[in-house]
């Protein structure tokens, strides 16, 4: 089983080592933590874990994590990292876990690449216990980042974002609304060329208040 980032699996994490990638990562994790709340001691599932980046993030905050992804290539990279939580190869639309198995189900930039996002969201809700929460992050169709990625994909059909479905905020809310009241915001208001990088945090504070529909990453939470 393959994913769109398989040809780039070995280099995928190098993005986080760049000034822009590292800053974007910190901005996104800040918002994700605000939505997740305390996770120490809780059972968490990271759907679309890829190279395990967010699985390690959750484990670092004390969660008992399992990472799941369809891509063998990405999981091989994840498995080679020290202190990586358990990993499972599976389809997000057919999760191999019992009902209500997790306190938290996290998925970041995975729903864009699955053939049936509604079915995958339903599976995530199924494995989340009553009183738990879904925290989902998707690429925002209304962000300048999406415009740049779609333009690059039109020029190069092998670009992994050629396979992505970018979600508008209303579409994202409709996707997860069947499982409860949706609280959402967005992150990353610096531009994809790195403009505004030095002012990333002030821009983030302003953007989350005044420009919520336009951040690069939409993040939503549903309490199941």
Description:
The protein has 224 residues and is of the alpha/beta class. The protein has one domain (6-223): Vaccinia Virus protein VP39 (Rossmann fold). The protein is 33% helix and 21% strand. The chain has helices at 19-36, 53-60, 72-79, 117-126, 144-155, 169-176, 200-210, and strands at residues 43-47, 64-69, 87-89, 102-108, 128-139, 182-187, 217-223. The two termini are 30 Å apart. The relative contact order is 0.16.
Structure in a nutshell:
The chain has 7 helices and 7 strands, in the order αβαβαββαβααβαβ. The protein is α/β, with parallel strands linked by helices and 224 residues long.
Characteristics:
single chain, 224 residues, alpha/beta, Rossmann fold, 7-stranded mixed beta sheet, 7 helices, 7 strands
Helix and strand layout, with pairings?
Layout (H helix, E strand, L loop, with lengths): L18 H18 L6 E5 L5 H8 L3 E6 L2 H8 L7 E3 L12 E7 L8 H10 L1 E12 L4 H12 L13 H8 L5 E6 L12 H11 L6 E7 L1
Parallel strand pairs: 1-2, 1-4, 2-3, 4-5
Antiparallel strand pairs: 5-7, 6-7
User: Major sheet, described briefly?
Assistant: 7 strands, mixed
| Contiguous runs where pLDDT drops below 50 for at least 5 residues | none
Rg, Cα atoms, Å: 16 Å
Cα distance spanning the termini? 30 Å
CATH architecture annotation name: 3-Layer(aba) Sandwich
How many structural units, i.e. domains? Answer: 1
Give the overall pLDDT as a whole number. 96
- Annotated CATH homologous superfamily: Vaccinia Virus protein VP39
How would you describe the shape?
globular
* The CATH top-level class label: Alpha Beta
Q: How many helices in DSSP terms?
A: 7
Helix proportion range: 25-40%
- Helix and strand pattern: HEHEHEEHEHHEHE
Q: State the CATH topology.
A: Rossmann fold
Strands of the widest sheet, in order across it, are 3-2-1-4-5-7-6
What is the beta-strand fraction? 15-25%
Class based on secondary structure composition and strand pairing: alpha/beta
* Beta strand count: 7
């Amino acid at each position: 089983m393959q994913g769109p980032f398989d040809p780039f699996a070995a280099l995928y994490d190098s993005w986080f080592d760049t000034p822009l990638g590292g800053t974007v990562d910190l901005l996104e994790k800040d918002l994700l933590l605000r939505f997740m709340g305390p996770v120490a001691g809780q059972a968490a599932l990271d759907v679309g874990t890829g190279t395990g980046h967010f699985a390690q993030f959750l484990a670092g905050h004390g969660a008992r994590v399992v990472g799941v992804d369809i891509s063998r290539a990405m999981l091989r990279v994840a498995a080679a990292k020290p202190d990586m939580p358990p990993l499972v190869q599976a389809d997000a639309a057919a999760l191999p876990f019992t009902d209500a198995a997790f306190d938290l189900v996290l998925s970041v930039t995975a729903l864009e690449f699955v053939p049936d996002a509604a079915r995958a969201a339903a599976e995530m809700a199924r494995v989340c216990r009553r009183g738990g929460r879904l925290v989902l992050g998707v690429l925002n169709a209304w962000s300048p980042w999406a415009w740049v990625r779609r333009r690059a994909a039109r020029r190069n059909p092998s670009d992994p974002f050629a396979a992505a479905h970018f979600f508008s905020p209303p579409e994202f809310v409709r996707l997860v609304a069947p499982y409860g009241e949706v609280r959402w915001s967005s992150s990353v208001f610096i531009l994809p060329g790195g403009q505004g990088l030095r002012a990333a945090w002030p821009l983030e504070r302003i953007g989350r208040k005044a420009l919520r529909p336009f951040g690069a990453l939409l993040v939503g939470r549903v309490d199941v």
